[in-house]
Amino acid sequence: xxxxxxxxxxxxxxxxxxxxxxxxxxxxxxxxxxxxxxxxxxxxxxxxxxxxxxxxxxxxxxxxxxxxxxxxxxxxxxxxxxxxxxxxxxxxxxxxxxxxxxxxxxxxxxxxxxxxxxxxxxxxxxxxxxxxxxxxxxxxxxxxxxxxxxxxxxxxxxxxxxxxxxxxxxxxxxxxxxxxxxxxxxxxxxxxxxxxxxxxxxxxxxxxxxxxxxxxxxxxxxxxxxxxxxxxxxxxxxxxxxxxxxxxxxxxxxxxxxxxxxxxxxxxxxxxxxxxxxxxxxxxxxxxxx
Length: 290
Known about the structure:
By secondary structure, the chain is an alpha+beta fold. It contains 12 helices and 7 strands. The strands form 2 sheets. A 4-stranded mixed sheet has the order 3-2-1-7. It has a 3-stranded antiparallel sheet with strand order 4-6-5. A hairpin with a 5-residue loop joins strand 1 (19-22) and strand 2. The protein starts with a helix and ends with a helix.
């Protein structure tokens, strides 16, 4: 009876207006300009987010395993969550939560989902995106995926959540990198992007080198020295090698100051390297010099 009642609700032709799902940062759902009140249940919100990102229909048994740690009646709890999701997403003239026997899916036609937009952009190729589009994508990144939506005793959901956060952080970092490369190297916007990139990926050597080069271009040598010192401490705490970043900083100061800096007896002579080259090229410079 359950399947028949749910699947008999065929969506009429009229589309609901302007449904937007914000999954980056704290979860929010808007219909037009109106923010909808989200159900207090974390599992309802997690279910909606999971179905929104699922590339195909999901079985009920999988959803039960995802969200419940052996409750007394997992299918009954799933039915309750689906009813709450319908109350949130469905609208007169449009049913969004669709079931067909054992499977469940969301009809997202005409909806905007920020995380899906990031996915599509990275799949299409960020190098092909113009600067205004990269800026627009950056504004979608309001924070970590489903910030604050951890669900206790739901290990499969937690694993999925961690994986999505990792992939979407990487996508955000890639967008920032392409913005930097599309901008003048030392403009304020580029520096801001680099700082945001390093918040997402604090051990990304390319971001450190690009930021230090931007600071050297602007004559902000003291800030660069302070950044390098803090970076060295952070890398050493994680047993990572920061020497290539130090070499890149010296090269940037020499390149933009136009005058070689005093060299300590224990430092190698470094050739100037273009900032756009990856960190591996800086390592090759060190190797040639030694």
